[in-house]
Amino acid sequence: MTPSHSLQLALAALAVLFAFGARGVSGFGSGMIAVPLLAILFPLTRVVPAVAVLNYLAALWIGFKDFRRAAWRELGLLLPAALAGLALALPIFHALSPILLRRLLGGWLLLQAARSLARAPPRAASRGWALPAGLLGGITDGLFSIGGPVYAAYLGRRELEKSVFRATLTMLLVLESSLRLIGYGATGILDRSAIGFAAALLPVAFLGLLLGERLHGRLPEQLFRRIVSLLILASGLVLLAT
C-alpha cells in the first residue's frame, strides 16, 4: 500500500465518520456529505453504490431500533410516490440534463432551508404535499442518491417530534433503498469493487452513527430542527456547486 493510497483511505474514513455522524443525529445527510467528498478521491462509479450500501445498512440499524416510533400514516402517503419517482428517474435522466436537474433541486432545497431558518417558522405542510415530495425525492434518489433532504424538507413541515421524524425518514429510506440496491445489482453498478470499498468503510460509518445517536438524544427540539435545516441548506449548496 503506497503512502498516497493510505492518505486517500484516511481522508475517506474522516469523510464517512462525519457523514454518518450527521445521519445518526438527523436520520439523513450521509449521502449528500459523503458522495461529493469521496468523489474527490475515488471514481464516482465506485463511490455512489458503496455509499448506497452504507446508507442502507445505516437505515436498517436505526430503523430496527426506532421503527415503533415511525409515523406510518405519513409513510403510507410518501412511499408509493417515492417508488414512482424511482421508476421515473431513468427516463428523466435520459430526457433532461442531469446538471439542470441538480441546479433546480439545489435551488429548491436552498429555498426550503432559508424558510426554515427564518425567524418566522414556515406554515405546516398538509398531507397533500406528500405526493410531489415523494415523487421528487424518489427521482433525486434514483439519479443522485440524494433523496433524504427532499423527504426531510417535507417531514420537517409536518411538525413531527424529533424521534418520530428520524424514525419515519429512516423507515422510508429502508424500504426505498431496498429496491434501489436490487436495481444497482441487476444492472452491474453494484460490483465487487464497490462492495469491497463499502466493507472497508463500514466500521467507520457505524462509529459515526453511534456518536451521532448519542448526540441526538441530548439535543433540544428547536436545536434539532435547526440542524436539519442546515443540513438541507448544505445539500442545496453541494448540488449547486457540483
What would you say this structure looks like, in words?
- The chain is an all-alpha fold.
- It has one domain (3-241).
- 83% of the residues lie in helices and 0% in strands.
- The chain contains 10 helices and no strands.
- The protein has helices spanning 3-26, 30-41, 44-66, 72-95, 98-117, 130-144, 148-156, 162-187, 192-218, 221-241.
- Helix 5 runs antiparallel to helix 10 (221-241) and helix 7 packs antiparallel against helix 8.
Helix segment tally: 10
Structural class of the helix and strand makeup?
Answer: mainly alpha
Oligomer: single chain
Q: Would you count the extended β strands for me? A: 0
Based on CA atoms alone, the radius of gyration comes out at: 17 Å
Strand content: under 5%
Morphology = globular
Distance between the termini: 30 Å
**How many structural domains in the coordinates?**
1
Highlighted features:
242 residues; mainly alpha; 10 helices
In short:
The protein has 242 residues and is mainly alpha-helical. It has helices at 3-26, 30-41, 44-66, 72-95, 98-117, 130-144, 148-156, 162-187, 192-218, 221-241. The protein is globular and about 50 Å long.
